[in-house]
């Protein structure tokens, strides 16, 4: 099911639930009930519950957005390190240079065509990707420089290899959801309590109140969906992309 359709259904469902409960409550309310007699303490509590929940939602959105940005940084760092390796091996003999560049291209091609889909579907990197990166490391480290110029390039190449490996490990660790289950419980429970407090104010079924209650519940549904969408940096709607690989290695299919 498309992400936009899930969002639309969630917002519509939140509006419908609030409006239906309001209408049912109005039908069952005593004839002598006076909405103007809502105690001041309930209004005060409702206000503060809304404020606290808004802060929690804001922190949750900031957290998942930061995790998504960090995941994209891992991709950029990995692609840049591999690009540096591919460029700096030009000082090596042609056969060694071509072999190392072929290793880099094979690894990048696997990442953008197969591993990325595996990350989106299963939330994990592939063993084949690790094997290709290991082959690149072996070809890079096993070569013995034959000149001072090559020796000067050797250690920086090893540093870039370590940076690529570290970025891949960081990418692998950030493929899953970032929000713990207990936080989701708090967010969902807070949404129920916050929307439920609307009925503590003895909301009636006037068009203005129904519209405001529906928009309020739809807004909360939208924010919760936004958190869920950002929660898995490589799997859902607005995700970290493989664009750095495609930009630095335009010849990769």
From TrEMBL:
Under InterPro entries, the record lists:
DUF4239 (IPR025333)
Membrane-crossing residue ranges in chain numbering: 6-24, 45-65, 182-203, 210-228
Record keywords, A-Z: Membrane, Transmembrane, Transmembrane helix
Q: What is this protein called?
A: Integral membrane protein
> To which species is this protein native?
Streptomyces vulcanius
